[in-house]
Amino acid sequence: MTTHHDLVIEAEGLTKSFGTTKALQGVDLSVARGTVLGVLGPNGAGKTTAVRILATLLTADGGHARVAGHDVAHDAQRVRQSIGLTGQYASVDEDLTGRQNIVMIGRLLDLRAPAARQRAAELLEWFDLTDAADRPAKTYSGGMRRRLDLASSLVGRPEVIFLDEPTTGLDPSKREDMWNVIRSLVADGSTVLLTTQYLDEADALADEITVIDHGRVIAHDTPEGLKRIVGGQTLEVRPSDVTRLAETATILAAVSAAGAPEESRKGLLSVPVSDGDALSATVARLASAGIAVTEMSLHLPSLDEVFFTLTGRTSSDTTEEVA
Amino acid sequence: MTTNTAATNPAADLTADPAASPPSVGPLRQGDASGSGVVVAVPVAAAKPRPLPLLRHSLTLAKRSLIKTWRTPEALIDVTLQPVIFLVIFVYIFGGAVAGSTGDYLQFLLPGILAQTIAQGAIAIGVNLNTDLEKGIFDRFRSLPIPRSAPLIGAVLGDVVRYVLVTISTFAIGYAMGFRIQTNVASAVAGCLLAVLFALSLSWVSVFVGMKVRTSGAVQGIMFLLVMPLSFASNVFVPTGSLPGWMQGFVNVNPLTHLVASMRGLFLGEPIGNHVWWTLVWCVGLVAVFLPLAMRAYRRKV
């Protein structure tokens, strides 16, 4: 691998086994400075293992990796000075208050006490935790805990941020909030590696996406490139009146680039669309034709569909291997 | 990448937009030229490295233990009520039979109960660390540029408070029951310090077991099996001379025997011999063997 000066994370041929389970079987990852890499894969694909190796929590069996210019195996302390890690489950001390958690991290990062307190106040404010700052973290809601966790990993102003499934378990509105936080981190110049099980999340946040399965990289592309392979958005419409299915199909065919819709389930028409205006155009045409609908949605392929396209099997075949 | 230009709430349910109103970050703000200022990536650690990292980081983490202790006072029962109950039971039930009078037996027994409770108090740290390790906070510690041993050393140091409490409650009930120091305050304090030092050294056995076994129940069980013979096959409850000869061999090398004999010397003015030195040798030995073992087990337990 040629070392590119602008690559903040570069991993080559990472392997890791736990007993007889091969969690990683030669994974390459690279992330350029100031960009977001989405690592997409089902449970057990090896995402968390890869993050733990890059964040120096685990040692790889084979391959090598550099983060922020330092080798993760031989120069782990230097790597740790440059990274922030937000785990799949929140890495906060539940018996400590939010403020005590962040001050403790600040002290461990060699801030003097007043500076650590100031940094804590700043981050608590930014993450809207000021009101809850002096309550034990065990009283926090799931979303607050995630925010505290992320705040804790930002104390040292890390150059590289690892986010391991940052929105798993969050309700949709909190998920959107977390996305906005991540966007502002990137706007501030951070480099982010984010793992996710959702194509829409990777699509919303990442500059490039690496899809891994069974510990191997099965695709690496930009979100646009990946969507070209696995298909873009799908519009689904279910008319209330089944007898008007044919009319609805004609309208959908007109807005879609791909032509005639298919009836994916009984009474439900689905058609691939590429144009962002397709939804509103469809709504307008359905309204003027006087067709009422009981269901209408626009969505990206699910992880199952992505995997089916890429591997010919569903991702559920691969789950529950290594957490 | 989708950029949501309408996103003015970068952090959760925020009402303020940091990009629009960067918070003042004062002296921390070295080196960042743009951005909101709160999270800006600065390609070095947040502050210059300062000397003695292991000590400072361990103390920071000891403070964490203290906060946790403060929040869960019920976890202090083993070091506060237990010595009280043991002293009362043993002095009033066995005192007459063992020493002829409860008063004489109290003088004899108090240093022993202190040593026994302190040894049992060391069980808790292994149990706690075993459960702690499953929680995410240890991932956080591992991802920070701190010495790997700092979280364990911090936890052990944080337990000093527990051992000081043992000492205080043992002496408080002892004095109420009629125990009197026969030497002087300096000797008594030295005896207490020796007991606390021994507890900190013995903690490393508990930490090692806590790192090695899978459940906290197993830590408790194993440590109890270790501590019971140490407390009973010793001079804690009866004079060594009254024990069968074959057992005296063990009793005479038992670290608790040396600790108790040292305390009897320092509290009551009894002949002290080499017991203090042997106690110190045990302390050094326990730390020298079990601290590295515990660290190795901790590194492997991911």
Automatic annotation (TrEMBL), chain A:
Signal peptide: none annotated. Belongs to the ABC transporter superfamily. Drug exporter-1 (DrugE1) (TC 3.A.1.105) family. Gene3D superfamilies: P-loop containing nucleotide triphosphate hydrolases. The lineage of its organism: Bacteria, Bacillati, Actinomycetota, Actinomycetes, Micrococcales. One of its GO terms (molecular function) is ATP binding. It is found in: Cell membrane. It comes from Pengzhenrongella frigida. Residues 9-239 form the ABC transporter domain. It is a peripheral membrane protein. One of its GO terms (cellular component) is plasma membrane. The keyword Glycoprotein does not apply. InterPro entries: AAA+_ATPase (IPR003593), ABC_transporter-like_ATP-bd (IPR003439), ABC_transporter-like_CS (IPR017871), ABC_transporter_ATP-binding (IPR050763), DrrA (IPR005894), P-loop_NTPase (IPR027417). The keyword Magnesium does not apply. Keywords: Antibiotic resistance, ATP-binding, Cell membrane, Membrane, Nucleotide-binding, Translocase, Transport. This is ATP-binding cassette domain-containing protein. One of its GO terms (biological process) is doxorubicin transport.
Automatic annotation (TrEMBL), chain B:
Keywords: Antibiotic resistance, Cell membrane, Membrane, Transmembrane, Transmembrane helix, Transport. The keyword Membrane applies. It is found in: Cell membrane; Membrane. Residues 74-301 form the ABC transmembrane type-2 domain. It comes from the Bacteria. GO terms for biological process: response to antibiotic. One of its GO terms (cellular component) is ATP-binding cassette (ABC) transporter complex. It holds the Pfam family ABC2_membrane. The chain crosses the membrane at residues 75-99, 105-129, 150-173, 185-209, 221-238, 276-295. Residues 1-32 are annotated as: Disordered. Belongs to the ABC-2 integral membrane protein family. This is Transport permease protein. It comes from Pengzhenrongella frigida.
